[in-house]
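RECORD TYPE: inverse folding
INPUT: structure tokens
STRUCTURE:
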């Protein structure tokens, strides 16, 4: 499947691996794909984000929201709210775990002083699902290659912190589809 990726999409995948490795993580997740997408400039995905009100210079709040979700072990706000309905205070749990084990202990990142191993981070099930979904989206739109815009669309099409954070900034699957595939001047290049 990787041979069908555009240069921009390949850079996003490489960037996701780098983000994961830099954080000391062992498994690339959807949030790493989104972080790598946020790094992109002059691509269809970055164009679409800019059109929807998230230009490169305003992407830091998205990164911060993803970091906060990682502190909650990747739980979305919907997950946190559902647990609260059951009487489980996720914030209190995170605080107690971080008191005992340090800030970010629930993020899944290694806590070995930042030392890297020779092993490159692998892709987790959720990240693989995003990659597969991006292929399906490209095929559905009769696009010959998988671009970074398809990765962005795939992230918005599945539940979880990346879709939630993007929606908070006005970027949903529907708005992206309109920008990327609508006729006229709003169509991405």
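DESIGNED SEQUENCE:
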């Amino acid at each position: 499947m990787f041979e069908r990726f555009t240069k921009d999409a390949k850079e996003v995948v490489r960037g996701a691996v780098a983000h994961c490795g830099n954080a000391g993580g062992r498994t690339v997740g959807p949030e790493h794909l989104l972080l790598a997408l946020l790094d992109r400039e002059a691509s269809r995905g970055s164009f679409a984000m800019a059109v929807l009100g998230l230009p490169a210079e305003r992407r830091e709040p998205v990164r911060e929201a993803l970091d906060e979700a990682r502190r909650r072990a990747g739980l979305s706000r919907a997950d946190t709210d559902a647990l609260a309905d059951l009487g489980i205070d996720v914030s209190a749990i995170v605080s107690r775990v971080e008191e005992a084990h340090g800030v970010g202990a629930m993020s899944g990142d290694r806590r070995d002083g930042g030392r890297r191993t020779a092993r490159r981070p692998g892709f987790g099930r959720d990240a693989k699902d995003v990659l597969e979904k991006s292929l399906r989206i490209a095929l559905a739109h009769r696009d010959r290659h998988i671009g970074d815009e398809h990765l962005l669309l795939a992230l918005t099409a599945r539940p979880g912190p990346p879709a939630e954070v993007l929606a908070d900034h006005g970027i949903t699957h529907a708005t992206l589809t309109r920008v990327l595939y609508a006729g006229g001047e709003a169509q991405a290049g």
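NOTES: The CA atoms of residues 96 and 102 lie 9 Å apart.
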